[in-house]
């Protein structure tokens, strides 16, 4: 059953358009949980910016209360009540408006910290996009490579079956030893085993690919890879300047510096406008309705060292984030340099595998002619064809490993 599924997914549905790399990348972006999380973080950071600006937004509050006092409080002479100080039933309702006029730095640094954090989150989202594209590209090329390996294994099995038939004919004609048939049967069994393994790898590659796309595999074929471009030639500093993960780390450090200033501004005064309108039951000398307007100045004198502790904590966070950025830059530099070297080596390997494949093909052709004319044993032929199959597999591996290395470099260089 597993073999049937592995074979069926490799077949192209007649009349169906092949799945391109661009389509795979687009679907991966649409169905990525990592991007969904990142987009939510971006929206959250925007709400934090809005929250920072609420420091200077007006606030309106309605309050109401009612109570009963027994006995009521009154002032009188000779048993006669002259002034009611607190009646039995009381109510109080009011509306209050507060408007901050000056924050002395609180608004500036709170907004700056939130906006810088938003930039960091947006840069992180772009880095996530590149990583999803890289993952989709690697899965696409892995599926193509495994499919080609299946084709090579199928060709190898067909060749082994043909050799076995030739060996049987030659033995009957007395031109070959009977042991050649046994050797060819063993070689055919080995080719069958290799084909099964290749189909299993291809089936697993397709499972990984379509799991990434979050949909079922409908047996689509994949478009062949385009021509191989040469390795890009680019300055290291230019690539580092484009990296979104480094940008996110820089913005996070800048946001932390703004939080240091924000923590320091907590000792600054605060000036605001306050107005209240109150309606209540009239008692003693208090009117039933009253409206007050005034300025409110608050000057912190001593908070027990709270602000200083917060400033020192914020400074240490800046130091930690700066250290993380320095480490991330070193890691990014090492990654880019390693990928450039790996890309160059794999590109050079392509020419080597081409020459090796041409030599192996010619050697297999000559060995086949020698065996058919009784000039050699099938051991020489089997070895030559095994070398030819290996050369084909190495060429396929070299081609797609170069494309995968190129995809890794493009993600690392933010191309």
Q: For the largest beta sheet, what order do the strands appear in spatially?
A: 1-4-5-6
Radius of gyration: 39 Å
What separation lies between the terminal Cα atoms?
43 Å
Query: Could you name the ranges where pLDDT drops below 50 across 5 or more consecutive residues?
Result: 1-15
> What is the string of helix and strand elements?
HHHEEEEHHHHEEHH
Strand content: 5-15%
Helix content: 55-70%
Number of helices: 9
Global morphology: elongated
Going by helix content, strand content and strand pairing, the class is: alpha+beta
Tell me the total number of β-strands: 6
> How would you characterize the largest beta sheet?
4 strands, antiparallel
Mean pLDDT: 88
Question: What this model shows, in words?
Answer:
This protein has nine helices and six strands, in the order H-H-H-E-E-E-E-H-H-H-H-E-E-H-H. The chain has 415 residues and is α+β, with helices and mostly antiparallel strands. The protein has a four-stranded antiparallel β-sheet with strand order 1-4-5-6, with no helix packed on it. Strands 2-3 form a two-stranded antiparallel sheet. Helix 8 runs antiparallel to helix 9. The longest helix is centred in the middle third of the chain and has 67 residues. The relative contact order is 0.14. The N terminus is likely disordered.
Secondary-structure blueprint:
Elements: H1 2-8, H2 21-30, H3 33-53, E1 59-68, E2 73-77, E3 80-86, E4 89-102, H4 106-172, H5 179-212, H6 236-242, H7 244-264, E5 270-280, E6 289-298, H8 306-372, H9 378-412
Antiparallel strand pairs: 1-4, 2-3, 4-5, 5-6
Helix pairs in contact: 1-5, 2-4, 3-4, 4-5, 4-7, 4-9, 7-8, 8-9
